[in-house]
Specification:
heterodimer; A: 169 residues; alpha+beta; Chemotaxis protein chec; six-stranded antiparallel beta sheet; 3 helices; globular; B: Rossmann fold; five-stranded parallel beta sheet; 6 helices
Chain lengths: 169, 132
């Protein structure tokens, strides 16, 4: 697999910078955001199956969503924030996929809102995390088989699956 | 100039709409391939269609397939816009009828460069006027 922690980190930093103007600080470590957060999962499928998981703290999610949507972040509804998080994960996955041997297709992202700290999940193949000023993001590439996840369907058939549980539900 | 933005992501549509409006376009939006074809059948015919590749239901490649069989529906220019950075997919989308390919994330300047390649020269003139 050509993908490694270094180029994965480069992709994450580049996507955040180019899409949102946010310069991520920190190092290639692991750690899910504390407090309320959003997670976006995208299945990679083909000869290799796995999941790209992006977990982002609520405050950073609202900040990047505001930039992407050209709106003040405090006026954004949760659906818009979750859609922006999904699109961010989509960009990371699209840039990473060619480096993952055997991964040919990407699914539509599934986004969830987590009250308080999200679960850490299984040990990833690759991961990087950034944290600064109480804002954080954790990106993981998880092997589908080892992680016990099923990624047999390359795409989720309903676009409604893009937006998962919102904090208002 | 009129552009039809086709993407299942609201965020992606807003980002592209912002860039295209900066460059002088009026925009319409479609959130999936079926709605895109409906817009094309209803008219008016857009000068440009930006088309996401990976969508649920009818994906970008399938939309191009339909347009290949119904050429009267084909917009003047089609630009594939996607996060996929695989050059094989670039080739595939071009062979199916795409005129240009734009990878996400992108800047307004990057969109302008693609529009120049597609022959929409006034886009660059708008940027130049805005900066002077």
């Amino acid at each position: 697999m050509q993908a490694n922690t270094s180029n994965m980190s480069e992709i994450v930093v580049s996507v955040f910078g180019d899409a949102t103007g946010v310069e991520l600080g920190g190092s290639a470590c692991q750690g899910v955001p504390s407090g309320d957060s959003y997670s976006a999962e995208i299945c990679l499928s083909g000869d290799w199956q796995g999941v790209l998981q992006v977990q982002i703290s609520q405050n950073l999610a609202r900040e990047v969503a505001g930039t992407m949507l050209h709106r003040q972040h405090q006026w954004l509804d949760e659906t818009s924030v979750m859609d922006a998080v999904g699109e961010l994960a989509n960009m990371i996955a699209g840039n990473l996929r060619p480096l993952v041997d055997g991964a040919r297709r990407l699914s539509v992202p599934v986004v969830r809102y987590h009250r308080q700290e999200a679960e850490g999940g299984v040990e990833p193949l690759l991961g990087c995390a950034y944290s600064r000023g109480g804002k954080s993001v954790d990106v993981r590439l998880i092997d589908g088989i080892q992680g016990g996840r099923s990624c047999t369907k390359p795409a989720i058939s309903s676009s409604a699956a893009r937006v998962g549980t919102s904090p208002t539900s | 100039m009129l552009a039809l933005i086709v993407d299942d992501s609201l965020t992606a549509r807003i980002m592209m709409a912002y860039a295209l409006r900066e460059l002088g376009f009026e925009v319409q939006e479609a959130s999936n391939g079926f709605d895109a074809l409906h817009c094309l059948r209803q008219g008016p015919m857009p000068d440009l269609m930006t088309l996401d590749w990976n969508m649920p239901g009818l994906n970008g490649g399938q939309v191009l397939d339909v347009l290949g069989k119904e050429p009267a529906l084909k917009p003047t220019k089609i630009m594939i816009v996607t996060s996929e950075t695989d050059m094989k997919m670039v080739g595939e989308s071009m062979s199916l009828g795409g005129d240009e390919y734009l990878m996400k994330p992108y800047s307004v300047e990057a969109v302008a460069e693609k529009l120049e390649l597609l022959g929409f020269l006034t886009a660059l003139q708008t940027i130049a006027n805005g900066r002077s």
